[in-house]
Each structure stands twice: as structure tokens, then as C-alpha cells.
């Protein structure tokens, strides 16, 4: 009987640890499986490459993006570039990286002498399927 009790304790502990690991993965990790509906948040310094990681037919949708100095000052702060970043996301070919820099956001403050960063988050969403309804011809 003692052997059976030890086995139950082992199964209970194993199940608890497995559920804890799943809960951590789901609630505390901001990188899921990069499939449709996943979320990713990044900060990229100027001059580094950037690649949107969506699988299959999913396309990136930028939810928030700011571009500005690594250490903001009263004269130079980060600006919202969500719309411009979405344009870059739409134009990026799947699996092809591009370089982050002022060429991406010409209207953003240049902040001479400061390293600039791009902070953004995006989700991967399924593409919109366009259908055309053609009326049926009566015979």
C-alpha cells in the first residue's frame, strides 16, 4: 500500500510541475509560437537588421512602434511610428531582413550624437482572403 501512495505523490507532483510550466509559457512569455495570433515585442538599435517572423500565410500587423534616442532628453524624445512601421511590415518580403535606421522614418527627430532605437510589437494575423461573388447565369 505504501508503494501505491508514493506513486500517487509522484504523479501529483509531476502533474503540478507540468501545469506550472504550461502556465508560465502561456502567461509570462511574450514569444509564443510565432504562428497566427502570436505576439512579439522587440527593441532594435540603428544599424541592426530586423526580420518579421510569421509562419505560413500569416502576415505581421504592427500594434505599437516608437523610434527615438536610447536615452531621451527634453529636446529629443521617441515618437510614435506605428503607421510607418506597418508600411514597412507590409512591404517586407517573408524571410527577408532589412536594416533599421533613420531612412525608415524620415520625419522622426534625428537626435545627433545619440543612438536611436526602434521599439515595436506585432502580431501575426492570417491574410485577408478576397473573394469575388459572380452572379450565376440562368440557363
From TrEMBL:
<keyword id="KW-1133">Transmembrane helix</keyword>
<keyword id="KW-0472">Membrane</keyword>
<feature type="transmembrane region" description="Helical">
    <location>
        <begin position="6"/>
        <end position="27"/>
    </location>
</feature>
<keyword id="KW-0812">Transmembrane</keyword>
<protein>
    <recommendedName>
        <fullName>SUEL-type lectin domain-containing protein</fullName>
    </recommendedName>
</protein>
Amino acid at each position: 500500500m505504501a508503494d501505491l501512495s508514493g506513486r500517487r505523490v509522484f504523479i501529483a507532483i509531476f502533474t503540478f510541475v507540468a501545469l506550472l510550466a504550461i502556465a508560465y509559457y502561456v502567461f509570462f512569455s511574450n514569444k509564443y509560437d510565432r504562428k497566427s495570433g502570436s505576439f512579439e515585442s522587440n527593441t532594435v538599435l540603428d544599424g541592426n537588421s530586423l526580420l518579421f517572423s510569421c509562419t505560413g500565410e500569416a502576415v505581421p500587423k504592427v500594434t505599437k512602434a516608437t523610434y527615438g534616442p536610447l536615452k531621451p532628453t527634453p529636446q529629443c524624445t521617441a515618437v510614435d511610428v506605428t503607421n510607418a512601421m506597418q508600411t514597412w511590415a507590409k512591404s517586407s518580403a517573408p524571410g527577408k531582413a532589412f536594416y533599421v535606421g533613420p531612412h525608415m522614418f524620415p520625419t522622426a527627430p534625428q537626435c545627433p550624437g545619440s543612438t536611436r532605437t526602434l521599439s515595436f510589437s506585432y502580431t501575426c494575423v492570417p491574410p485577408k482572403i478576397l473573394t469575388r461573388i459572380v452572379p450565376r447565369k440562368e440557363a
